[in-house]
Design goal:
This is Cytochrome c. The chain is mostly helical. The chain is built from seven helices and four strands, in the order αααααββββαα. It is 51% helix and 6% strand. The structure holds heme C (HEC).
Amino acid sequence: MHQPLVFRLLLIFIVLILNACGTSTEFDNQATEGYSNAEKQKFAKYMIQGKSLYTTYCSNCHQTDGEGLGKLYPPLAQSDYMLADKERTICLIKKGLTGEIEVNGISYEQAMPGLKNLSNLEIAEITTYVYNSWGHETGFVRVEEVEKALRNCE
Ligand code: HEC
Protein backbone atom coordinates (compact mmCIF):
# COMPACT_ATOMS: atom_id res chain seq x y z
CA MET A 1 0.00 0.00 0.00
CA HIS A 2 1.30 3.50 -0.84
CA GLN A 3 1.92 5.91 1.94
CA PRO A 4 0.16 9.17 1.42
CA LEU A 5 2.48 11.73 -0.13
CA VAL A 6 2.11 14.11 2.75
CA PHE A 7 3.28 11.44 5.16
CA ARG A 8 6.39 10.81 3.08
CA LEU A 9 7.15 14.50 2.87
CA LEU A 10 6.79 14.72 6.62
CA LEU A 11 9.31 11.90 7.05
CA ILE A 12 11.81 13.57 4.75
CA PHE A 13 11.32 16.80 6.66
CA ILE A 14 12.01 15.10 10.00
CA VAL A 15 15.15 13.43 8.67
CA LEU A 16 16.42 16.77 7.37
CA ILE A 17 15.79 18.47 10.71
CA LEU A 18 17.56 15.68 12.59
CA ASN A 19 20.56 15.98 10.32
CA ALA A 20 20.70 19.72 10.78
CA CYS A 21 20.59 19.40 14.57
CA GLY A 22 23.05 16.53 14.74
CA THR A 23 26.59 17.46 15.58
CA SER A 24 28.33 14.89 13.45
CA THR A 25 30.91 16.63 11.30
CA GLU A 26 33.00 15.78 8.28
CA PHE A 27 35.90 15.21 10.67
CA ASP A 28 34.34 12.34 12.61
CA ASN A 29 36.30 9.14 12.45
CA GLN A 30 36.54 5.84 14.29
CA ALA A 31 38.33 7.36 17.22
CA THR A 32 35.72 10.08 17.76
CA GLU A 33 32.73 7.72 17.74
CA GLY A 34 32.28 7.74 21.51
CA TYR A 35 32.68 11.51 21.87
CA SER A 36 29.86 13.65 23.22
CA ASN A 37 28.38 16.21 20.85
CA ALA A 38 30.31 18.98 22.56
CA GLU A 39 33.54 16.99 22.16
CA LYS A 40 32.82 16.45 18.47
CA GLN A 41 32.32 20.17 17.98
CA LYS A 42 35.58 20.89 19.76
CA PHE A 43 37.37 18.23 17.72
CA ALA A 44 36.10 19.81 14.50
CA LYS A 45 37.41 23.19 15.67
CA TYR A 46 40.83 21.72 16.38
CA MET A 47 40.90 20.12 12.93
CA ILE A 48 40.07 23.39 11.18
CA GLN A 49 42.56 25.40 13.23
CA GLY A 50 45.12 22.61 12.95
CA LYS A 51 44.88 22.55 9.19
CA SER A 52 45.44 26.26 8.95
CA LEU A 53 48.45 26.12 11.31
CA TYR A 54 49.82 23.11 9.42
CA THR A 55 49.60 25.09 6.19
CA THR A 56 51.51 27.97 7.78
CA TYR A 57 54.16 26.09 9.73
CA CYS A 58 54.63 22.61 8.28
CA SER A 59 53.46 22.20 4.72
CA ASN A 60 56.47 24.01 3.20
CA CYS A 61 58.53 20.99 4.09
CA HIS A 62 56.15 18.10 4.69
CA GLN A 63 53.76 19.21 1.90
CA THR A 64 50.00 19.69 2.02
CA ASP A 65 49.36 16.02 1.36
CA GLY A 66 51.78 15.00 4.14
CA GLU A 67 53.93 13.07 1.68
CA GLY A 68 57.15 14.94 2.44
CA LEU A 69 59.69 15.88 -0.20
CA GLY A 70 62.11 13.38 -1.67
CA LYS A 71 65.04 12.51 0.56
CA LEU A 72 64.93 15.88 2.30
CA TYR A 73 61.67 15.93 4.24
CA PRO A 74 60.10 12.77 5.60
CA PRO A 75 56.40 12.02 5.12
CA LEU A 76 53.87 12.42 7.92
CA ALA A 77 51.13 10.52 6.08
CA GLN A 78 51.40 6.88 7.14
CA SER A 79 54.69 7.63 8.88
CA ASP A 80 55.56 4.70 11.16
CA TYR A 81 57.90 7.03 13.04
CA MET A 82 55.21 9.60 13.79
CA LEU A 83 52.41 7.16 14.53
CA ALA A 84 54.59 5.20 16.97
CA ASP A 85 54.93 8.03 19.49
CA LYS A 86 52.65 11.02 19.96
CA GLU A 87 54.67 12.54 22.81
CA ARG A 88 57.83 12.45 20.73
CA THR A 89 55.96 14.30 17.95
CA ILE A 90 54.78 16.99 20.36
CA CYS A 91 58.36 17.46 21.59
CA LEU A 92 59.88 17.69 18.14
CA ILE A 93 57.35 20.28 16.98
CA LYS A 94 58.38 22.53 19.87
CA LYS A 95 62.09 21.69 20.08
CA GLY A 96 63.03 20.58 16.58
CA LEU A 97 64.83 17.39 15.58
CA THR A 98 68.37 16.63 14.40
CA GLY A 99 70.30 13.50 13.64
CA GLU A 100 69.49 10.52 11.47
CA ILE A 101 66.02 9.01 11.73
CA GLU A 102 64.28 6.28 9.77
CA VAL A 103 60.75 6.73 8.45
CA ASN A 104 59.08 3.81 6.70
CA GLY A 105 62.46 2.22 6.04
CA ILE A 106 64.06 5.33 4.55
CA SER A 107 66.63 7.36 6.44
CA TYR A 108 66.55 11.16 6.70
CA GLU A 109 69.16 13.44 8.14
CA GLN A 110 68.20 17.08 7.70
CA ALA A 111 67.53 19.24 10.73
CA MET A 112 63.99 20.30 11.52
CA PRO A 113 63.89 23.65 13.35
CA GLY A 114 61.74 23.82 16.50
CA LEU A 115 58.71 26.10 16.54
CA LYS A 116 59.30 27.61 19.95
CA ASN A 117 56.67 30.30 19.66
CA LEU A 118 53.70 27.99 19.21
CA SER A 119 51.36 27.87 22.22
CA ASN A 120 50.37 24.56 23.77
CA LEU A 121 46.90 24.97 22.26
CA GLU A 122 48.36 25.51 18.80
CA ILE A 123 50.54 22.42 19.18
CA ALA A 124 47.47 20.42 20.29
CA GLU A 125 45.56 21.61 17.21
CA ILE A 126 48.40 20.80 14.80
CA THR A 127 48.98 17.41 16.42
CA THR A 128 45.27 16.61 16.33
CA TYR A 129 45.27 17.54 12.63
CA VAL A 130 48.24 15.38 11.61
CA TYR A 131 47.00 12.41 13.65
CA ASN A 132 43.55 12.58 12.01
CA SER A 133 44.40 13.34 8.39
CA TRP A 134 45.55 11.23 5.46
CA GLY A 135 43.68 8.20 6.81
CA HIS A 136 44.96 8.47 10.40
CA GLU A 137 42.22 8.07 13.00
CA THR A 138 43.78 8.70 16.37
CA GLY A 139 41.29 11.18 17.87
CA PHE A 140 41.88 14.22 20.02
CA VAL A 141 45.27 15.38 21.17
CA ARG A 142 44.33 17.56 24.15
CA VAL A 143 46.18 20.55 25.56
CA GLU A 144 46.78 18.60 28.79
CA GLU A 145 48.56 15.90 26.76
CA VAL A 146 50.75 18.56 25.16
CA GLU A 147 51.58 20.07 28.56
CA LYS A 148 52.48 16.66 29.93
CA ALA A 149 54.59 15.70 26.91
CA LEU A 150 56.49 19.00 26.96
CA ARG A 151 57.29 18.54 30.66
CA ASN A 152 58.88 15.19 29.80
CA CYS A 153 60.94 16.01 26.73
CA GLU A 154 64.65 16.51 26.87
C1 HEC B 1 62.10 23.45 7.45
C2 HEC B 1 61.43 22.23 7.12
C3 HEC B 1 60.48 21.65 8.15
C4 HEC B 1 59.39 22.23 8.73
C5 HEC B 1 58.88 23.65 8.53
C6 HEC B 1 58.78 21.23 9.57
N1 HEC B 1 59.50 20.07 9.50
FE1 HEC B 1 59.07 18.31 10.43
N2 HEC B 1 60.79 17.53 9.77
C7 HEC B 1 61.69 18.12 8.91
C8 HEC B 1 62.86 17.29 8.75
C9 HEC B 1 64.07 17.60 7.90
C10 HEC B 1 62.66 16.17 9.56
C11 HEC B 1 63.65 15.01 9.79
C12 HEC B 1 64.60 15.40 10.93
C13 HEC B 1 65.75 14.46 11.12
O1 HEC B 1 66.15 13.79 10.16
O2 HEC B 1 66.29 14.38 12.25
C14 HEC B 1 61.33 16.33 10.16
C15 HEC B 1 60.72 15.39 10.96
C16 HEC B 1 59.42 15.46 11.40
C17 HEC B 1 58.70 14.38 12.07
C18 HEC B 1 59.23 13.00 12.41
C19 HEC B 1 59.48 12.18 11.17
C20 HEC B 1 58.23 11.75 10.44
O3 HEC B 1 58.18 12.00 9.23
O4 HEC B 1 57.31 11.18 11.05
C21 HEC B 1 57.44 14.85 12.34
C22 HEC B 1 56.30 14.10 13.00
C23 HEC B 1 57.39 16.22 11.86
N3 HEC B 1 58.60 16.56 11.30
C24 HEC B 1 56.28 17.04 11.96
C25 HEC B 1 56.29 18.40 11.63
C26 HEC B 1 55.20 19.30 11.90
C27 HEC B 1 53.87 18.89 12.53
C28 HEC B 1 55.60 20.53 11.48
C29 HEC B 1 54.85 21.83 11.61
C30 HEC B 1 54.51 22.22 12.95
C31 HEC B 1 56.91 20.39 10.90
N4 HEC B 1 57.31 19.09 11.02
C32 HEC B 1 57.63 21.43 10.31
C33 HEC B 1 61.50 19.36 8.30
C34 HEC B 1 60.53 20.29 8.64
